[in-house]
Amino acid sequence: MKIGDKVRFLNEVGGGIVRGFQGKDIVLIEDADGFDIPMLRSQVVVIETNANNFVVKKKEEPQAPPRVRYVEDNVDDDPSERPVTFQPKPQERKGGDLMNVCLAFVPENSRELSSTRFEAYLVNDSNYFVNAVFANNQGASWHLRWQGELEPNTKQLVDTFDRSELNDLERLSVQLIAWKRDKPYMMKPAVGVELRLNVVKFYKLHVFQNTPFFREPALLYDIVRDDRPVKQVFVEAAEVIEALRGADSQPSDIEDASAGDALPAAPATRFEEDAFEPAPVARQLTREEEREALKAAKRQLKAEQQARAKEMAAKAEQQALKAKELAAMAEQQRRSRTAPQGMKDVIEVDLHINALLDHTEGLSPTVLLNTQMTEFRIMMERNIRRKGQKIVFIHGKDNEVLREAILKELNRRYRTCTYEDAPFQKYGFGATLVTIL
Q1: Does domain 339-435 have CATH number 3.40.640.10?
Q2: Parallel, antiparallel, or unpaired for β 346-350 and 390-394?
Q3: 1-58+75-88 domain in CATH 2.30.30?
Q4: Average pLDDT along the chain, 437 residues, taken 10 residues at a time
């Protein structure tokens, strides 16, 4: 790299001509407006070399009077060690006044997905400065992982982690406040979004896709899209499908009607009656207006069926949970009658995978272990406020991996609880007794 070369910036928009150097690492780049911008050598790349090494003379400027040097001044002052007093203004782009922020996960080595570490980035795809807070949930509280300022149209590394930390990242939150510096702007509302990661995705290569923000494949979660916070809806797909199967099949009839020229002969639901009943107007509806009325009826009917499906799914979940609790209480009462001295009112939790899942074909050992640990955390969170409660987690005498994972979780997240081997005469070596303190 030499004077006169044409360069561009690696991590920022723009470029210019090399006009000089400051020390070993600083390059002075003249931009299109004639300003000299100091940049690190590692942050610029040559796109057109100056074969003749010519120097373009800049217009002469009046020289300042010589500065009086005092005794304490350092005579051997190195210009490269002087602080940089000029910073270029962030580049704004057309259409960037809509807030767009996303959270991205990038594997350091996508070819070694089973062992690689991951990087987490906050991508600010807008013309606003953004104050951001990135945190994760552990137990009943949140823990800060990164806090700082995002410049316009930039990405910021906020965290690095490996697979052993995935369980701590199941619940994340991102909080944002946006503004513009040194210029008027439209106020944006403060944003607080909670995310739930599906950690199984980090074991599948195809979920990491090419994006305009990274050279490597990445997994993106939208936080704000076009000024609107993106809220996750946590609905079990199997329950929604089951609820839809029991719903009326009228939408297909409406789809067929919308493709033709005539209206249905007879309405099927009260929404269709409202939509298809001739309005008391003086003129007859045009075909375009009839089609718009059909579309409005379809949207209204679809919204009602979605609400009905959600209601049915919620009722089914409540009934299943109630039945499970009743069965657990009955089992607990039965076992408490035959329990040894000092083991009354003990909750037993069977963590054998066959007791948790009906089918395990095709599931990896990691997914099975995560399922068992999820059941362990649910029972701990459900009883964490019940002082003196004893819980026996039955993991089996041959499952040392699950036992070590439980002990590690107790030592890290539930430090106020005590644990020991469950009574040998009843459980052998295959269970751990936890006491809530």
Answers
A1: no
A2: parallel
A3: yes
A4: 84 84 84 83 82 50 49 49 58 82 90 85 92 89 91 91 84 91 88 86 84 89 90 55 53 44 41 39 62 85 90 89 82 61 74 86 88 92 90 88 91 91 86 92
